[in-house]
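Today's session is about reading a structure prediction critically. Students often jump straight to the picture, but the first step is always the sequence itself: look for stretches that repeat, for charged clusters, for runs of hydrophobic residues. Only then move on to the predicted structure, which in these notes is written as discrete structure tokens rather than atom positions. Here is the chain we will use throughout the hour.
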Amino acid sequence: MLMRRMKMKSILPIADIDLANKVREIGFHEPVFAKYSKGVLCDEECSAFEDYNGLKEPDLVSAPSLQEIQAWLSRRKRMDVLVYRDVFFGEVGDYYAVVIRRKDGLTRESKRVVSSNLALEAGIRTAVSLLCKKRKRK
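Below is the predicted structure for this chain, in token form.
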């Protein structure tokens, strides 16, 4: 997971190149601010939203934020990635994500991690692996 500073001065966690390639394979074609060019993150020269996955150039890959992928999974693939935190007798613990496939109610939990962004990334990877398995079966 990488962090990027956006024009509005906030920091958003973005997908690494491996995750960006995987979501590209399963159909992520949404406008984003940043891209990977030959495996290197390039966000300085990007001034507007653009779908780099739709340009048909193999060296360019969209670099979406984790929140953009989460919203896309919910909107286009009908999979919710929800982040929770363990609480036990008033003690707070680790974060984890629950992936829910709305089509049939299938749920999967991610591993426990120390931050909400890491839990979101783990949940997204779980959802993507479920979608990749589904594509391989077809």
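Discussion point for the tutorial: The chain is about 30% helix and 30% strand.
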